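Predict the 3D structure for this chain.
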Amino acid sequence: MSGWTPGGALASNVEVTAATVQRGDIIQLGGQACRVSDLFQLAQGGKQLLFESGELLTMHARTRLAAVRMQRRR
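Done. Predicted structure below.
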């Protein structure tokens, strides 16, 4: 599902894994929306996500999460 957002950006719901997660993705965790500000590669395909709030989340290589990805209009 995609929707229009103010400011010329397009929001899309995507499923992310450790291989596909990107900076700027918004992941809902415990009822709170968390924006990914940085990523760190871990052994065996995992990633550690740093959120703007300062919290960390470690994703296993097979973890799948729902996220919102903002894309600029071209």
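The two ends are 19 Å apart (CA to CA).
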